Description:
CATH topology of the largest domain: Aspartate Aminotransferase, domain 2
Radius of gyration: 22 Å
CATH class of the largest domain: Alpha Beta
Number of helices: 16
Bound molecules: pyridoxal-5'-phosphate
Strand content: 5-15%
Amino acid sequence: MASMMLSQKTCNPSLLRGNSRRQVSVKAVQAPPKLNQVNSERIFSEAQSLLPGGVNSPVRAFRSVGGKPIVFDSVKGCKVTDVDGNTYIDYVGSWGPAICGHANDEVNAAIVAQLQKGASFGAPCELENTLARMVIERVPSVDIVRFTSSGTEACLSALRLMRAYTKRDKIIKFVGCYHGHADSFLVKAGSGVATLGLPDSPGVPAGTTAHTLTASYNNVEEVKQLFEQNKGQIAGVILEPVVGNGGFIPPSMEFLQGLRDVCTQEGAVLCFDEVMTCFRISKGCAQEYFGVIPDLTCMGKVIGGGLPVGAYGGKKEIMSMVSPAGPMYQAGTLSGNPLAMTAGIKTLEILGRPGAYEHLQRVTERLVKEVVAAGQAAGHEMCGGSISGMFGVFFCKGPVRSFEEAQQSDTAKFARFHRGMLEEGVYLAPSQFEAGFTSLAHTDEDITNTVEAAKRVFARI
Ligand SMILES: Cc1ncc(COP(=O)(O)O)c(C=O)c1O
């Protein structure tokens, strides 16, 4: 066993490249490889005096797994390289957009060509029509689409639209679902029985979140009760059709169909927040995969191919409320800029080629199956799942059907697993409650190397 571990470690190219301190001696081989983070630590330390908490988005700070974050230098394919020269197999993919692999040659070439013609017009361009057509053709619920520059913007605009269209104020969201950081969505998630929302962050007026009702994911009965208790007041229901922000939690068909039925019955808008799932779960997003069609859809991440893009779209009747077609105001200086449209168009074009989603499904399913089996064989309580290129594992018996159940998992063990995988050259999202992502660039060899790394880590956590 020891000799097998030695050969695996010394043969792992990601351990040998650019990190001489990780070329461990035969004697030291059973100790965890030491990760050289000297430059990462120096840069992050300086960042703490320049940026709040040293980052521009909180999860990047590694607070929930401990240890210092890795500072990236470059990315390519499914690999990322840090400022100390360590290379990792990456399962974060820039939090979703890098579905074709980082710095994909075709996407890069398209961006460079467009750059010569200008990055931002602030005026209509034909590229907006091209991307809009691709979205409308692929996403069943979308007749008309408005581009924004982030998922947050898409979701807060969709929320305003739900309210404008129905002339009602209240909305229902689910515990553990994240829809960006607009005030109305920052609600302290109550567990168990559905509760009235309280602000989750200072600075959010209680009056704003008083209109946000919460229910447990995969529990349509709670939603029906909320509609009963708030007759004629609920504008709509918003959800991640597959949860990624509470860890990977798939919906039951009964839940999705139940939401569809109750919204139709109550004259409320059903909004799928597909910022994470759009063009990742399938060519027509989660709504096509499950065959449940919402009234409104929010998009982001993949749709911008690595540049900042969000979008919301839906039925013509609802979207015709949006300014200047209608009275609901929403705008954006960089919305629909030609550079971001170009990256989105090329990314969707690549994803439209035969075999793309089959590849994502195959490598991801294999990854989760083998990692969970290895964890269980090493005596850890583990469960996990995947759909296409989105996945998650929990350190608990499972199955996990809601955020409340996800919270049963052993987060301290996840933190040790996360650090161990970093030391082995695998970059995972730094939280138990984040989904993982694969890309078209992940090969069977990458999966094998990841599973072997996980086996070594399971043996020592
Ligand atoms: C489901 C979902 N909605 C909305 C957002 C917000 O998107 P952005 O970070 O682009 O503002 C995210 C971000 O992770 C998300 O996962």
